[in-house]
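User: Structure please.
Assistant: Input sequence and predicted structure:
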Amino acid sequence: MGNVRVSFTREGAQAAIVEKNDYYAFGLKHSNPADTSGLNYNYEYNGKELQQEIGMYDYGARFYMADIGRWGVVDPLAEMYRRHSPYNYAVNNPIVFVDPDGRGVEYNWGTGDYESIDSNGTRTTLDEWDAMNYLLSQSHSVKAYRTNALGAVNQDSGGGGSTATFGETQAYRDIMAYLAEREPEYFEGINFSQFDNISDEEPVNFFGKNDKSVFHKKFKEMHDLLKNTKGDGIFRVYGHGNLNMLWNEDERLFSAKDFDKAMVAKNKNWANIDKYKNPTLILFACLSASDVGNNGSMAKQISKAHPNLTVIGFRGFVEYDLDVKGIKNITRQQGAGDGNGLIVFYKNGKALHGYYYREYLKKYTNFK
């Protein structure tokens, strides 16, 4: 997260520690020994400058109060976060998200130093992409190490750190998305040709009456394109999402059972979903494939509840843009237009694979 945990100064030819800090998730400091050096280094939590006079961190757009986990003023992009208080920090989840400048959140994807260890025990430092290539080779194992503020590697022995195989990291999951074409067996059983045909169950609108017109206009566009089609078992849902939940108008859905109840009320065909042959559900909702905690994303939960169903969700924010036809952009940071979000496929509660959405659309241009 960019926290400055140890500050130094020069004393002759030696480095002397000015201050050591540990932080709770929202930035409040642990009870560390007081700084008695008389020197001040105010760039601390998230690398932001602490304003000693008011006890707040300067993020640029706003000042942040780490003791209560809130901003001092309303979010300048509050309309982008309708479901959250305009004073919240990182949508109340600073482990998963960071807010670089006080305006919008983005994933704390994190980076680390990676090493490959071959059959002879030889270690090689890798970046994330090389680590992925090594992982695909059975002759190598890859370890991912999180470096601390001093650049020292946290390992299993000493230092209080830990290691994890690269396959357990978020970086692994993201890179696997980009390299999906190298592993076609992950897509066995999924008939991608169905997306080239405009023939499915009618789209379902989960937006509420108080949502902005752009969402309802985009839904109408997609509904007019896909209406009066049925038979191939592809269901599409358009709505708002968040971590491990979906919105049905003003109702929160936290489980597959909640979703089924809401879905049947809007599309009677959903009652027979388990009788369909190879049905597909596409959740055009933000964070619908972002797995956090034990239950995981709504896409994961729904696919687990219906083992015969392939569920397609999005790891990132779905942009409803009236200037383009269809849904063309999934972003890591809400409203950023960065195009770095993922499309993820689930079956029986497991993520089969995924693409960066922009790469996926290049191959499946008629996906809707």
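The two ends are 36 Å apart (CA to CA).
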